[in-house]
Amino acid sequence: MSENPLNRLPFSVLDLATVGEGTTPADTFRNSLDLARHVERLGYTRFWVSEHHNMAGVASSAPPVLIGYLAGGTTTLRVGSGGIMLPNHSPLVVAEQMGTLATLYPGRIDIGLGRAPGTDPVASRAIRGVRFDAGQDFPRDIQQLQAYLSADNRNAPVRAIPGEGLDIPIYILGSSTESAYLAGLLGLPYAFASHFAPTQLFAALKRYRDNFRPSAVLQEPYAIACVNVVAADTDAEATRLGTTLQQLMLGVVTGKRQLMQPPVDSMDHLWSPAERQYVEQMLSVSFISGPEQLAKDLRHFLRQTGVNELMAVSHIYDHRARLKSYELLAGVLQGVAA
Predict the structure, then answer these.
(1) How far apart are CA 151 and CA 163, in angstroms?
(2) Which residues form a coiled coil (predicted)?
(3) How far apart are CA 45 and CA 62, in angstroms?
(4) pLDDT for 143-188, tens place per residue?
(5) Phi and psi for 196 in degrees, rounded to 5?
(6) Neighbours of 323 (CB within 10 A)
(7) Homologous superfamily of 11-333 in CATH?
(8) Distance CA 105, CA 38 (A)
(9) CA atoms of 249 and 196, how far apart (whole Å)
């Protein structure tokens, strides 16, 4: 790695299509497209959307549809899933849907795959039906998806049209060492969800690299770390903006999820000491500061992890402040004054 790990590091966006208090999913989608166009101009590499279900505050329940909307409104940005929860779907349907997108937007579509349901058990059963335990088929389903997308599948009795023969990059997503092992075994790039599951980050990266086997698509390990970033002109401003993220994670901890909330001056009246401890643990891989501190913290993180790419998710209530945050992050990572 270069002496300055911020130089020439690819940097990307994960967007959960979060719905803010007082707004609608339609507002969220318009803001997502505006953000995608913004980061495209700033030099970001890719823009991924995630799959979640049965959450009033998250509108990304249909990633392929949202990917098509975002890719159609941009020109060079790679757009993909971060991820599609593969056990929720037939590999053939995923191959056809993503194959359609890759045909419409050649060279710009990524397929990120996750094992989790992306929802609660009740909704998961509604989605998966008799395949409720389909998570155990994740390795086999990945290989089936790869087969459908390969040119060698042209003589098979079941074919993905469009999709067959297209070079669509596949990434394995994970928040534990299990998916890290699988990504290494299959020789695929790996993206770790340190934005909400930071405790296993280093163990997962080590297991991925230790078990990596070169493949037709990747000769060396390629690891992406997804992190929370809330950047502002000053540390104090970023700290206040970051209370939106803290409230979001508090909802996860307490089970009392709500729409994305505006920032507050203090969290003291919103959480107990125990809840604060849980939230801070979940957010231990978060960068909430002004540009100078952000550069120092990111440089330390990248030297520690050695990841090949940084992916940022920014839960910021005000859309203009979120645009500014990604602008400041780009400035830091490009080594220019932001």
Answers:
(1) 9
(2) none
(3) 22
(4) 999 999 999 999 999 999 999 999 899 999 999 999 999 999 999 9
(5) -135, -10
(6) 18
(7) Luciferase-like domain (3.20.20.30)
(8) 19
(9) 8
User: What does the CA dihedral 247, 248, 251, 253 come to, rounded to 10 degrees?
Assistant: -100
- 72-110 in b/e burial notation, b at 16+ Cβ within 10 A? ebbeebbbbbbbbbbbbbebbebbbbbbbbbeebeebbb
* Tokens at 5, concatenated: 């790990």
Distance CA 104, CA 93 (A): 17
Torsion of CA 212, 215, 217, 222, to 10 degrees: 10
pTM assigned to the model: 0.93
State how far the alpha carbon of 260 is from the alpha carbons of 154, 212, 229, 244, 264, in Å: 46, 39, 16, 7, 12
Q: At what angle do helices 201-210 and 177-186 cross, to 10 degrees?
A: 20
Helix or strand run (H / E) with residue 312: strand 309-313
Preceding peptide of 263 cis, ω within 30°: no
Q: How far is CA 283 from CA 101, 192, 315, in A?
A: 34, 14, 12
Residues 10 and 117: their CA atoms lie apart, in Å, by 29
Q: Which positions ≥6 away from 145 have C-beta within 8 Å? A: 86, 91, 94, 95, 111, 113, 170
Exposed/middle/buried for 317, CB within 10 Å: 0-12, 13-18, 19+?
A: buried
pLDDT, one tens digit per residue, over 229-241 is 999 999 999 999 9
Confidence of residue 5 (pLDDT cuts 50, 70, 90): low
